[in-house]
């Protein structure tokens, strides 16, 4: 069955076996995912693995070609897209950015900007904002109508490491105060917001899922970034040992090819280091240790930054 029907459980959104096909190719398929009020779900995966497509499917921007997508009736969505189509040659104030695609009262704009700590920038031109200020403005735009669910597609892009920590703290505090659900797409394959309840790794379909491992135990991490970073970011340690073909099928280690992963397929939480992330359709056999958290943080994530401006 395909379609979008109301949801009966306490979930805000629930995808079951959901997939999107374009031009005879599955962009992503077999996705099972749900977000409950107050829950933070983080999607990770290589470039082109279907993270944005999955998020758009969850909020109804794209309709699933297979499986089911259910949303709570009347669900209010706040969305920070990965890219924004705005004509940046035109002057645009932060205040105006918030109300470009939604009707907002002045008091709602003020409250949203205040909540993200940039009330003083209401009249500033968007072009002049720093990377962190710009992401806060996008966040303000997304929370202005007090959504039930926030969908944040790479909300820390263009932001330096300390800014990233501050933004993740802000996102966590927004969740704490409003108890909205959050579906977050991370630009980093290994390091996710520590407040994340569930990490889902995509590579054309769901490869594995789990809770992020705490990094606070890693002495190197503490030495490099201090306790604040350790409390905000966590390494997601996982390993895949099968290969995803461009058409969405899976090549297993024994040479067999199937449409989907086997239920207990190669998601070993191994602890040796064999970092081999390719583009999609490449062998997917990465293994990470907590001790490697600092280097994965220091080096820039693998080309996943898309600057919105
Ligand atoms: N409308 C479309 N028509 C055809 N192919 C598409 C369309 N939208 C996305 N794709 C393709 O679907 C795949 C998944 O794209 P998606 O943007 O969801 O990946 P992603 O994991 O978010 O990637 P990134 O980390 O690079 O942002 C990509 O190969 C992309 O080229």
UniProtKB/TrEMBL annotation:
Composition bias, Basic and acidic residues: 246-279
Stretches that traverse the bilayer: none
Pfam families from the UniProt entry: ABC_tran
Record-level Gene Ontology MF annotations: ATP binding; ATP hydrolysis activity
Highest rank taxon of the organism: Bacteria
Family: Belongs to the ABC transporter superfamily.
Protein name (record): Metal ABC transporter ATP-binding protein
